[in-house]
Amino acid sequence: PLLSKDEFAQTKNLVEKFGQSSQGQELQRRLEARAAEPGRANWLEEWWNDLSYMGYRDPVTPYVSYFYTYKDDKLRRKPTQRAAAIVRAAWAFRAQVASRELAPEMARTTPLCSYSYNYMFNATRIPKRPSDVEATYDLGANQHITVARNNQFFTLELVHDGQLLSAAEIESQLDRIVERADSTAAVPVGVLTSDNRDLWADNYELLAQASPQNAQTLEKLQSSAFLLCLDDTKPVTREECHRTYWHGNGSNRWFDKSLQFIVCDNAKAGFLGEHSSMDGTPTCRLNDYVLDQTLNNKVDLGSANVRADLSEPEALRFVTPPTVVRAIEQAAGRFSKVVGQHQLRVLQYEAFGKDEIKKLGFSPDGFVQMAIQLGYYKMYGTSRATYEAAATRKFLHGRTETCRSVSNESVAFCRAFEDNAQGVQDKLAALQAAVKTHGAYAKACSEGKGVDRHLLGLRLVLRAGEEKPAIFQDPAYARSCHWNLSTSQLSSEHFEGWGFSEVVPDGYGIAYTIRKDALIFHIAAMQNEFGLNSDHLAHYIKEAATEMRATVLAAKLAAAPKL
After folding, report:
1. Mean pLDDT, range 60-69, rounded to an integer
2. Cβ within 8 Å of residue 201, ≥6 positions away
3. Is the peptide bond before 235 cis (omega within 30 degrees of 0)?
């Protein structure tokens, strides 16, 4: 659907020739041989992790990391009180991971691979040239968290005399940290982690070598179970909240840590996840658990008493000579520039949600994907390549495949809905066909039958000096992989949305949450020469969703027997 008839004919011819060629068969043989190597869990794993994450050199925030926005906690209005409850709930989840008692997630009756949980707690990404590395630390030997406040870092030991700190004790310790941090200022070392990965790798070495103390501080911070960021801001609007959890001020964070829980001074809260070794579904489960426990007052808070002999939280001090200070100032400037280049709109669509979509007879995800397609078509008058993440965790060490949301049926659906000459029954039929096709392809992707990762593998087994196959030189291949829309769904009734960035300069990043009674879209894009407009796309997606529901209802009403 992305090509003209002539372009499609040419591409079809190239693909058929490649499949029959000795080169195509040899590349397939190499790929199968790689998959069959003893001890190799997944033929794609190392390649994917390096190409998409560890070897990717742009800043992890905003380009790689993702965030969740929490619902308000009506039971805990004081920020350190809410933070303490979040810590207790997260620690209970961590205990299940540590003991290996956490049940695997299920796709109906099929268990999903839990390997990525190894990189959830006490884990961090470490910058290196040409490719970063992931470091994990023993959970039993490292029972501390790192707390960030006013661009400073503190170690908070969560076990005292063999006993886990109660929520009241954690809150008391956090109050001490806030008081200390707010009474002084420090060089914002954390902003170094927001930088281009090569620059951060160089500055990481500069920081570590500036003083033996710095190496010890880095080790303590990196080995912590997770980061708790106590921000001194008070975001109110949805956009303010999303920006806070997406990137914040760039300094009250350590963007390399796998998990960062964020609590603001008005007790608004959220989460930031580092994406390199763990996709969104495990952290969605973690955060859904934390919020279910805290918002519904299920969390075990422990004793209300605060032990008098708790030691003062340790400040993590960095020695910052002029060379390091200069690097920090330059990184802060680059962070401000990158963040300033991004626009963001949050569409909170409350006309209906998952329950109504099911009543209408549709898959909620397929329906929302078509709303995005129709919204984009309304704005641009065409359909362009769309990426939707599909989980492949049915397979050992599986991560994702590309579910291509644009199909012949989706294009026909968009055209039908924009054609006033089409009746409601024809529009309904077009919508049904589009959603059905989307669902079939999404299912195929989750079963390892997508095309994109396979094609990537065939490209990567090419050896130096070998001619690149014609299918990979075909302009249609590049066009079909240029993701003007990069989309993904993660849903929890406890979320007020989630988000990530675009993946191409002329595209949008659309993260959406499907709740029972609402649809929430985070629409991100760059402000550049391509004239993108997140506000306008939000408007058209809302218009599309409203029209789709109205059309379905009208068609059903027209088809109903007359009394």
Report:
1. 97
2. 127, 128, 129, 132
3. no
Band (pLDDT 50/70/90 cuts) for residue 80 is very high
Question: How would DSSP label each residue in 98-130?
Answer: HHT-PPPPEETTEEPP-GGGGGTSSEEEE--SS
Q: Is the pTM of this model over 0.85?
A: yes
Cβ proximity of 332 and 188 under 8 Å:
yes
Under 8 Å between Cβ of 398 and 44: no
Antiparallel, parallel or unpaired: β 508-514 and 519-526 = antiparallel
- Tell me the chain's radius of gyration from C-alpha atoms: 25
Alpha carbon of 109 to those of 60, 119, 242, 457: distances in Å? 35, 25, 35, 29
Q: Residue 161, SS3?
A: coil
Distance of alpha carbon 169 from its chain centroid, rounded? 32
| C-alpha dist (Å) from residue 490 to 48, 406, 487 | 21, 20, 10
Q: Specify whether the CB–CB gap between 491 and 468 falls below 8 A.
A: no
- Residue 21 pLDDT more than 80? yes
Among the listed residues 144, 247, 275, 522, the single catalytic one is 275
For residue 479, CA distances in Å to 11, 129, 166, 384, 413 come to 12, 30, 55, 9, 22
3-state secondary structure 39-83: CCCCCCHHHHHHHHHHCCCCCHHHHCCEEEEECCCCCCCCHHHHH
Is residue 562 pLDDT above 80, yes or no? no
Cα 3 to chain centroid distance, Å, stands at 30
Number of Cβ within 10 Å of residue 563's Cβ equals 3
Q: The tokens of 421 are what?
A: 């000459």
Whether 539 sits among the annotated catalytic residues: the reply is: no
Q: Is the pLDDT reported for residue 563 higher than 70?
A: no
Euclidean distance between CA atoms 271 and 264, whole angstroms: 11
Instruction: Please give the structure tokens belonging to residue 364.
Output: 């909620």
Cis peptide before 188 (omega within 30 of 0): no
pLDDT digits 0-9 by tens, 147-156: 999 999 999 9
Alpha carbon distance 135, 276 (integer Å): 11
Is residue 86 within 8 A of residue 158, CB to CB? The reply is: no
| SS3 (DSSP) at 141 | coil
pLDDT digits (tens, 9 = 90+) for 191-242: 999 999 999 999 999 999 999 999 999 999 999 999 999 999 999 999 999 9
Q: First-to-last CA distance in the chain?
A: 43
Q: Helix, strand, coil % (nearest 5) of the chain?
A: 45, 15, 35
